[in-house]
Amino acid sequence: MKVVGFDPVLPAAAFKELGIQKCDLEKVWPQADFITLHTPLTPDTKNLINRESLQQMKKGVHIINCARGGIVHEMDLLEALEAGHVGGAALDVYEKEPPGESTKKLLAHPNVSCTPHLGASTEEAQVNVAKDIAVQMCDTLESKDFVGVCNVGYMSIAQNHAIRPYADLAQQLGRVATQFAMGTVWKITLASWGQTDISITSPDARALLKAQALVGFLSTQDTHGTLPGIVNAPFLAEELGVETEALTEAPALASAASPYRSLITVVAHVEGGGATSVTGSVFGHEPCLVSLDHYKNFPALNLHEGSVLKFRNKVGRAGEREGRREGGRAGERAVGSCIRVACPSILPLASTTSLHVRIRPCQGAPVASAQSRTRDLSSISPLPSVWRPAHRFLFTGEGLRERGNDRTLHAL
């Protein structure tokens, strides 16, 4: 059987694969003995079959419309049937549903076969739909492929164990970038690069990593009690007026000579200009911070260990003291250094030392909003449970100065 067809979108290769000869509509009408319609109703397809097109068709042509009512001009079709030019028609869609009085004469014509517009509302179709839903739910609950998910195209790749360390890294970077950002974040961008067992640069992978970064960002925001996840994070960010973008460009540190096998960069852009950029890599299965803005010569910081103090100026005596602690590390630069505090609690540095901090809780912490406190460190050992470093609070410093014997760290 020879099949000809017209589709303004489908490429010629697809027609060839299906064994269909691609033609313009003007060449389809005079060749076809049976014409079937498979198109939505649009301004371009409304009354596609009309008196003019019917006159171009073969005498005795049969027309089948199971697509949408309104594609066939019903009165023109009835006229062609009565004139004997059209041999028959099969319809299950109509201009008005249920059909109006003007359509009843067409439906009563002896050469017209008509059925109600059932769609998928047959017994067999409902049984098959139920089976499909049951299979898809079982696959989902067993962490297999996600089939038929309409709003999240990256759920299948999210179940791949190989990408989970990178998804974790993206989430941690989203949290860190937001907490270091100097202002209200209005845009989050993510770039990825890697020579890994699984691609972290495919569109689905980048979409997943971006969603994970947004989960980290939203963990520091007021989401009115809604727990962010990779499904709802993009929508929650949109509700907060935050733009998001997964970049196709590789992070700045990526190159053939890079010592890293993978890199993810998250940038938090703030209102009024300015941005905070954080870059991380996966070592083993652990997410590590390797670059903060233009600082990158500090030891990689495992983002699952303890808390971080970041000084924007010279570290000073308080920072040096913490840097010498067991588990503590200070950056090599005197300016822009980071200190890892891996101990279970902050012990007193000196009786005259106070710490003014703005605390931004991470996901799961019991503090509902940011708080500012000035405390004598000698009186808060160990820290109250609500402030324990086990909650991975991030302390960012802005200005360390000495006043006699008092050393005060003013934090954001």
UniProtKB/TrEMBL annotation:
InterPro entries: ASB_dom_sf (IPR029009), D-isomer_DH_CS (IPR029753), D-isomer_DH_NAD-bd (IPR006140), NAD(P)-bd_dom_sf (IPR036291), PGDH_ASB_dom (IPR045626). One of its GO terms (molecular function) is NAD binding. Transmembrane segments: none annotated. Residues 1-119 form the D-isomer specific 2-hydroxyacid dehydrogenase NAD-binding domain. Keywords: Oxidoreductase. It holds the Pfam family 2-Hacid_dh_C. Residues 163-290 form the D-3-phosphoglycerate dehydrogenase ASB domain. PANTHER family: FORMATE DEHYDROGENASE 1 (PTHR42938). This is D-3-phosphoglycerate dehydrogenase.
